[in-house]
Amino acid sequence: DTLRNIIPFLDVFIFGGFALSIGVAWACFKLRFMEQFMLDDVSDVELSHPTTQHLILKGTQMYLIGFTLMAVIAAVNGALSITGNNTNTLRIILIVVEYSILGIMMTISFWLYPAYITSEKGMKMISEKYSDECAAWEAANPDHEWSKL
User: Fold this and answer.
1) How would you label 93-107 residue by residue, b for 16+ Cβ within 10 Å and e otherwise?
2) pLDDT of residue 2
3) How many whole angstroms separate alpha carbon 23 and alpha carbon 30?
4) Quick check: 54 and 133 in contact, CB under 8 A?
5) pTM value?
């Protein structure tokens, strides 16, 4: 009977665990989730660029919020299942919404937001928001190709 009451909450443990680990790693150890994805693809110099740091910050925030939302939706689904108020249709809808958030997060963080940031409008926003940081980075790395942009 206990196992039957835990199974509807498995997604809560999974996605809540992701959210908790992202939050703890960021708050306690200054490890940002998205930075770990970029370590193999960019050099240390490029990783220190304000644009890359902005992408890391926004991506980490988005995944923290997204996994938290997914855990909340899973908790609602589990609670409805335990109380017997969950229909198959509602359960499927909640699962689709839950996993749609994951697809949306991945699409935004790996495709849409980087495309926006590297566009003219995004580069203008970065240069205005991080003008001092960009100038310091370019002064420290004058020979890098990104300093010439």
Assistant:
1) ebeeebeebeeebee
2) 74
3) 10
4) no
5) 0.86
> Between the CA of residue 104 and those of 39, 63, 111, 130, what are the distances in Å?
23, 10, 10, 27
Location of structure tokens 């994951």 = 102
42: left (phi over 0), alpha (psi -120 to 50) or beta: beta
User: Which tokens belong to 107?
Assistant: 């699409």
Q: How far is CA 43 from CA 31, 32, 40, in A?
A: 17, 17, 8
Helix or strand holding residue 37 (H, E): helix 33-38
Q: Which residues contact 38 (CB under 8 A, 6 or more apart)?
A: 47, 52, 55, 56
Please list, in sequence order, all residues whose beta carbon lies within 8 angstroms of the beta carbon of residue 26, skipping any fewer than 6 positions away: 32, 33, 60, 64
pLDDT of residue 8: 87
pLDDT at 114: 92
Low-confidence ranges of the chain (pLDDT < 50): none
pLDDT of residue 108: 94
What pLDDT sits at residue 84?
A: 86
